[in-house]
């Protein structure tokens, strides 16, 4: 099989960077935060309504930041801006800042295609292994859509951008092995942590079927992150959750 056309090769290289990916998910982050604030202010007498619309990965990240006395929203946005500036510096050092604006809709479309393939692959794998995936509790559509956005952003930031990247770095330093091996180890371990996190604080009953289902999903998203970056994995995760929501 020959190499992809030069334009495609450049697109794949430029959009895989941390800077492009974080910049691409910024609209998702703004949309999620805005929707969460709006929904959490509705029906103040309903405890469930005011506490439900927050993703647990988000709460975990923010809890760590709270320990560092970073509590106000403006400071949280400052942290994201600092990470974005770091990613900008890395991209500049690597010569990957000369991307085209049209790459953003291209990446969104690419992620939608992956989400469709991802959903098909997961359903076939589930059926083949005779697994039963546990669904989320039934909530209002607007709340479930908001949670889908939160999962796509914060679960990818926590388990792929932070955890998988850190694990790959540690495995590379410890074992002095090829990228294929240390990335594969990082994908598998982060997928196991990603799956187990769904049962954290007794949020769900741990079953073999649901754990394996999420492990496979985490593995696929992890591989996608390694190959295509945080932007694609976040949008793919979000689109998959939304497609699953409307299909259900």
Compile the SSE list and pairings.
Layout: H1 6-15, H2 18-40, H3 47-51, H4 56-67, H5 73-94, H6 103-128, H7 141-175, H8 179-197, H9 208-228, H10 230-247
Helix pairs in contact: 2-5, 2-7, 2-10, 4-7, 6-10, 7-8, 7-10, 8-9, 9-10
Task: Summarize it.
The protein is an all-alpha fold and 248 residues long.
Domain module tally = 1
Number of strands: 0
Rounded radius of gyration (Å): 18 Å
Mean pLDDT: 85
The end-to-end span amounts to 39 Å
Identify low-pLDDT runs.
45-52, 135-139
- Residue share in helix: over 70%
* Secondary-structure content class: mainly alpha
Q: How do the helices and strands follow one another from N- to C-terminus?
A: HHHHHHHHHH
Tell me the β content.
under 5%
The main sheet comes to:
none
Shape: globular
Number of helices: 10
Give a verbal description of the structure:
- This protein is mostly helical.
- It has one domain (6-247).
- The protein is 77% helix and 0% strand.
- It contains ten helices and no strands.
- It has helices spanning 6-15, 18-40, 47-51, 56-67, 73-94, 103-128, 141-175, 179-197, 208-228, 230-247.
- Helix 6 (103-128) packs across helix 10.
- Residues 45-52 and 135-139 have low confidence and may be disordered.
Please give a handful of descriptors for the protein shown:
77% helix; globular; mainly alpha; 248 residues; single chain; 10 helices
